[in-house]
């Protein structure tokens, strides 16, 4: 048995499917003489497609961000047609009679060796551009190849070095976790891929790949360094996303035990989906608002099926991460409108772009930062490109008339930032009105509490905004100085931290005293053990992956204000993670004995 970081609950037993990175070298294909011309043509077609892709990027980036930002893509465009580079690849295909992918890899290796001998640092950095351009051609070749054929039509467990946010959406089909036709997460899977579980070498419990796995209801374990050296496609794997346990080629007894757990897990999810029409009200009549976190219109539809009453967090960056170039204002408008129209009660809190960190798009350039999560990301990046950001604000304001829309700014650190953001919204609003645009009434503005400085000064921020939303994933990482994506410090990225509990208690007290709406939209929101003390501290609005709404309704039905208050009072007195976790585990189990199947044990 191997142990990683548990990141998405559930149990799966299935065959492994190892995901190669696009740049990973495959075995060379040796060609017959007659096939060489065709292979050169295939290479040329891939180059033309990559050039078309770069042309579109240059046009969009120059238009939306400026000529300076587009310069790097113009340089890549030139490099793509560089006679030395293209000539070398063709010559390798011709003389060694190998496939274009192998020729590109050989070329990349030759350049890497050559550049390593150059003492000039600036020239050495140009190697990154060559790698980028070769990667783009390889990606085009991969697109042209047939998609990977799985050894079986059964669901698989993906095993990958890491899953980037940009890959995740296209890679993962909706799982068939529950058999009920109404189950959130029950979507027809693409013919080629049904994902029963995910194992990654990198990543932590609140990294974006983990969040996506949870939102799709796929059990997952991260931080399994070196697993790809041990597992081969087709191996049997038993995976426990609650404990972070992985068994490679388990014996018959372990396999049978995990298959039984998997059946129990599926049966429990099936029964919980019956909760979707229940009101989220505690035993003594206290109402909790259950909202959903979404990335797309499909997720918003899933939120309806799960029984959420609105969308509490629409992460708009996925539109940008999956777009071939840069979405223009009208494309953004129609994407936002689609989400609003699909959402429960057409009620959506739209968060402005939260790029940077592990969510990179090429058009901001490859910024080398020592600490990307503490650097130029999120609202800092958006406001550094005012025209680009204005386009997003215009699209959101225009979309707001299609429902009840609120606007949420991520990663705010200071009051000055809030003043600036409000001025930007007002200016954009006036501009649209001058153009004759029909707008909804001024929409509520809110900020995310993710930076401890903002959390501590929440009282000041509340004077300027209509609501706040606690982004506990980032708040934990900044409070604990522990990267949420780094498995080595996963033990510190802890929702049961005494420091976090005390900080959350203060935030909730301040917001409730001022009668300002406060939502919790980090991953804690979907975990019954985390909700119990927060309910006692006064939290009444949660936003979570739609897949968790039915289980949170079940939890809420078993609670009373009295129990919550008692738990909250005890938890803020505790001084270790172990004490808090142990106490909450026992307490929730008393209220709901089956809950351990649905949550991570950590
Ligand atoms: C958070 O940080 O808790 C949050 C909801 O935002 P994200 O996970 O997208 O960073
Ligand atoms: Mg965040």
Description of the structure:
It is a single chain. With 602 residues, the chain is α/β, with parallel strands linked by helices. The protein folds into 3 domains: 2-19 and 161-272, Glucose Oxidase, domain 1; 33-144, PtsI, HPr-binding domain (Enzyme I, Chain A, domain 2); 281-593, TIM Barrel (Alpha-Beta Barrel), CATH 3.20.20. Helix content is 48%, strand content 12%. The chain is built from 23 helices and 16 strands. The chain has an 8-stranded mixed beta sheet. The protein has an 8-stranded parallel beta sheet with strand order 15-14-13-12-11-10-9-16. Helix 10 (297-306) links the parallel strand 9 (289-294) and strand 10 (311-315). Helix 20 crosses helix 22 (561-571). The longest helix is centred in the first third of the chain and has 32 residues, at 33-64. The chain is globular and about 80 Å long. Bound molecules: phosphoenolpyruvate and magnesium ion. Phosphoenolpyruvate (PEP) binds next to strand 10 and helix 18.
Q: Count structural domains.
A: 3
What overall form do the CA principal axes indicate?
globular
- CATH H-level homologous superfamily name of the largest domain: Phosphoenolpyruvate-binding domains
Strand content: 5-15%
Going across the major beta sheet, what is the strand order? 1-8-7-3-4-5-6-2
The helical percent reads 40-55%
Number of helices: 23
Average of the residue pLDDT scores = 88
Structural class: alpha/beta
């Amino acid at each position: 048995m191997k142990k990683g970081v548990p990141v998405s609950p559930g149990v799966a037993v299935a065959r492994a499917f190892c995901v190669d990175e696009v740049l990973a070298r495959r075995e060379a294909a040796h060609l017959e003489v007659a096939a060489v011309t065709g292979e050169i043509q295939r290479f040329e077609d891939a180059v033309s497609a990559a050039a078309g892709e770069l042309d579109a990027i240059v046009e969009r980036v120059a238009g939306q961000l400026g000529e300076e930002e587009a310069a790097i893509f113009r340089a890549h465009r030139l490099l793509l047609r560089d006679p030395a580079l293209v000539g070398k690849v063709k010559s390798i295909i011709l003389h060694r009679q190998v496939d274009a992918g192998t020729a590109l890899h050989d070329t990349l290796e030759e350049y890497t060796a050559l550049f390593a001998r150059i003492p000039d640092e600036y020239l050495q950095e140009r190697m990154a551009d060559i790698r980028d351009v070769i990667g783009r051609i390889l990606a085009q070749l991969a697109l042209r190849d047939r998609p990977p054929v799985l050894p079986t039509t059964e669901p698989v467990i993906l095993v990958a070095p890491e899953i980037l946010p940009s890959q995740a959406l296209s890679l993962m089909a909706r799982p068939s976790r529950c058999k009920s036709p109404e189950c959130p997460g029950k979507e027809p899977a693409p013919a080629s891929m049904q994902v029963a579980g995910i194992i990654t070498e990198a990543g932590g419990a609140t990294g974006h790949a983990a969040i996506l796995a949870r939102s799709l209801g796929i059990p997952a374990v991260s931080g399994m360094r070196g697993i790809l050296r041990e597992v081969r496609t087709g191996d049997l794997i038993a995976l426990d996303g609650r404990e972070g346990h992985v068994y490679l080629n388990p014996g018959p007894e372990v396999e049978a035990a995990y298959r039984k757990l998997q059946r129990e897990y599926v049966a429990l999810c099936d029964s919980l989906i019956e909760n979707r029409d229940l009101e989220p009200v505690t035993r003594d009549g206290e109402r909790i608002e259950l909202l959903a976190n979404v990335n797309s219109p499909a997720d918003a539809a899933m939120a309806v099926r799960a029984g959420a009453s609105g969308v509490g967090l629409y992460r708009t960056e996925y539109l940008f991460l999956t777009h071939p170039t840069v979405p223009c204002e009208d494309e953004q408008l129609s994407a936002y409108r689609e989400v609003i129209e699909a959402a429960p009660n057409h009620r959506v809190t739209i968060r402005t772009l939260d790029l940077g960190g592990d969510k990179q798009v090429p058009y901001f350039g490859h910024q080398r930062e020592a600490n990307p999560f503490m650097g130029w990301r999120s609202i800092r990046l958006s406001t550094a490109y005012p025209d680009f950001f204005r386009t997003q604000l215009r699209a959101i304001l225009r979309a707001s008339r299609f429902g009840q829309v609120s606007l949420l700014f991520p990663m705010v650190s200071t009051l000055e930032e809030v003043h600036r953001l409000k001025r930007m919204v007002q200016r954009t609003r006036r501009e649209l009105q001058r153009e004759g645009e029909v707008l909804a009434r001024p929409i509520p503005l809110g900020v995310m509490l993710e930076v401890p400085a903002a959390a501590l000064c929440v009282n000041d921020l509340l004077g300027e905004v209509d609501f706040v939303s606690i982004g506990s994933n980032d708040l934990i990482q900044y409070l604990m100085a522990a990267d949420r994506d780094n498995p080595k410090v996963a033990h510190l990225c802890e929702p049961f931290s005494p420091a976090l509990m005390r900080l959350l208690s203060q935030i909730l007290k301040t917001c409730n005293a001022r009668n300002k709406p406060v939502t919790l939209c980090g991953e804690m929101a979907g975990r019954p053990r985390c909700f119990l003390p927060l309910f006692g501290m006064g939290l009444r609005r949660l936003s979570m992956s739609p897949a968790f709404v039915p289980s949170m309704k079940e939890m809420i039905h078993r609670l009373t204000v009295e129990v919550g208050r008692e738990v909250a009072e005890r938890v803020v007195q505790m001084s270790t993670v172990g004490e808090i976790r142990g106490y909450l585990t026992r307490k929730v189990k008393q209220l709901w004995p089956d809950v351990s199947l649905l949550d991570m044990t950590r």
